[in-house]
Amino acid sequence: MSRILLAIDSLEKGGAQKNIVILANKLLAKNHDVSILTLDNKDNDFYSLNRNLKRFSLDSKIKSKNYFQAIYNNLKRIYKIFIILKKVSPTTIISFINTTNVILIISNFFFKKNIIISERNSFSLQKLPMVWQVLRNITYNYATAITCNSIDSFKDLKTKFQNKKIVYIQNFISSPKILKLKKKKILLAIGRLHKQKRFDKLINDFKRFIQSNTHSGFKLVILGSGPEENNLRKMISPNLSKKIIMPGKVNSQKYYNEASIFILSSDYEGMPNVLLEAMSYSLPIIIYKANSEIRRFLKHEISALILDENKKNNNLANILKNFEINSNKFIKLGKKAKKNFDIIDNERIYEKWNKIIKSK
To answer: Model confidence over 257-271: pLDDT tens digits?
Structure first.
């Protein structure tokens, strides 16, 4: 039996967070001694944890006011993690998300434990502050293995860290919770309200559709919270407040069941959990930009509509107009996406994790 410490910035609602909780539960089920550490306060947890999990939180996810305070705060985090590592004495550390990875690797310098880090976004396209970029480039060389959840990131990591063990492991999936709710004309988007997700572009595109189709029953619903929330809300004029709705950080289950279409408007992604969830609910899917990983699961005009593959005719307004004329075509896309989802096997994904944990 191994002692495994899993680390992440927080357990707020998110794809990386969901995956680390599923991994923790899988490891517990296989009789490992599992602890989970977050930089954030555990009172902010969205996901419920198995009572057999040991839980540590630094309560140190605070925004630094200046460069010197940032150095102090991160040194404080490293010291706290050092104390926890000394107490837990894990045989393996698994860390998710780039900045948390850097902090865990530095904290592990004195212990030299087996440490597996995981990139959960596009390695090359996600922009980090320069200091974190430099630290990542240095510290990742001290990881036992680096995992990622997309083919593009796998290739980029292989190029950047040629002497390291790089492993591609796709996201875990969870079964959909089907509710017997009537379908509504809802265009659903879910994600952290961050510039990467391009909800600003989505709102503008939807506004253009509404302006030329005033009698359409479609509503745009964007679920999530984040730094761009105020800016996005300012884009929604009072007369559109019933057409463009932002409920905040809420349970998405009801919306998946009621929505007619799911849309991913991001500039870049790794492999977003929300996309897999939309596939599990047989939702027709629109994607603004697809990477190699997304195209492994979804093909344009077969199981999704990918706008950057046909920019001339494929714009949101045209797609929504077509849906109102022939919704059956879209329903077929959703069914095909669901078939692709059903092929994914959580046990095979776990076995990949288990193989890395066992290897030194």
So the answer is: 999 999 999 999 999
